[in-house]
């Protein structure tokens, strides 16, 4: 809030860039900045995009708490050169965060965090001055107001997920405000949610159902985006972290006002169900559907069935937003998703000599073990899969040659897994279709990762993957890393239709609806992944064949399905928090293989990379101590 108070006494006009434009950098001397910014339609539109600017800066992965604190990825904390990666967010799970040094501080805009309260002030300024441009049409004015109200809602939602109760800054305080007027207090969590939902409800009628001019406007908010976010907000509010959580009962403002309700409220799931159903119906009515081979323009048609299945799942994320019918919302529409080199191994001798690609963002063994077997059940439940012998060695054969290099020795854990496993992860011996080698897949490249003498193995203390697993899902198969790097950009989804189906299934289950109704949404996603439905898979292959028939059992199935389907998409960290399951996920060391070894018997020995530091206080971010000194009406989150 310290940054916010500074802006109370001055008028802020952003000078940062959005997309490929520069805004408001030609203001003549002695001209009132706000009047100039809204003197006509074009200048006002420039200011509208400054309201979007903070949102666009959410596009990357390294400063998103949903990605860096999820346990899905590990970034080494001892590199001699981080090569452009900010380790702040990744180090939070190591217990580095204090009230004096807050990582990903979105309250003040420090340590990788954006200045969200400044973004809210810009939005308020836009709404306060929207009547000034005389050449702005009625329709444009209504749409711009709706977009800004949504942005206000989303910025508040982002803060709510991190901090819980926050001050509601619906209007900018005048410059004549007294110091005491500036000392705002936190609003109760339920009031924050109601405020966010009200803003979205006000915005929805004036938002377009879809973007017609994608060249000029892709990335601007649509009705489907707004309805989907509303469903997500209400599901978050209904989840265990915020719904009757006993850990937060004692959090009160200094005047004694309780900031969390101590009582679980089942009707919050009912409210979320209505919103999620409306969002899905709206999406489907506007042509959104699951990405399949028939909807992808980038998949070669001469592939084997096994590779087609894998590539269809890869391109669900990496196909262009303009032609991908599943992506409801993505960010950074101009520049695409960069830094793919952080997620890919070196696959050729020339690449091994190249300093461009580090491949330093690594997935732990626990993430690999999250994926199902080819029978569509967890590896520790499949009665036909050798769970206890999963670390024993096995050699790739002809039957598995499109997944594992023929004749290469790896571990049994890499065999007979579901297609999403091979689409999302690269590993020692794993086939990599793409990187300039296309055809029918018979000559596909593969990952050689054992020791420094291999292509993908550690080369120094910069180009190293510390676990032996790469988040392949975040690399477009057309991206080429050889002597040079050629990127095929994509827009990392923020909301996909598959995610909405799984969210609705979760909500229906929490309502206690019949499992057949719940599974109808889960099975849509599983079918696209090449799996049979939950009932068939568990009945035939699981050691707990009736698990799906109970609310608790089905909850576990849905949560794991969501973590698999949305893996590496900046969702797991948020989901695990709202489910109050992140502490359990962080209770075990994050391990990788012994990557410096050359022989498989020595390489395939799990070793601890990170021992996470996490307890109940870490579910909410701390407010920096300085902010509490400046504003004596603020209270700190529990146990910080």
From TrEMBL:
Pfam families: SusD_RagB. InterPro entries: SusD_RagB_dom, TPR-like_helical_dom_sf. SUPFAM superfamilies: TPR-like (SSF48452). The keyword rRNA-binding does not apply. The lineage of its organism: Bacteria, Pseudomonadati, Bacteroidota, Sphingobacteriia, Sphingobacteriales. Residues 359-640 form the RagB/SusD domain. Keywords: Cell outer membrane, Membrane, Signal. It comes from the Bacteria. This is RagB/SusD family nutrient uptake outer membrane protein. The keyword NAD does not apply. It is found in: Cell outer membrane. It comes from Mucilaginibacter gynuensis. Belongs to the SusD family. Its main location: membrane.
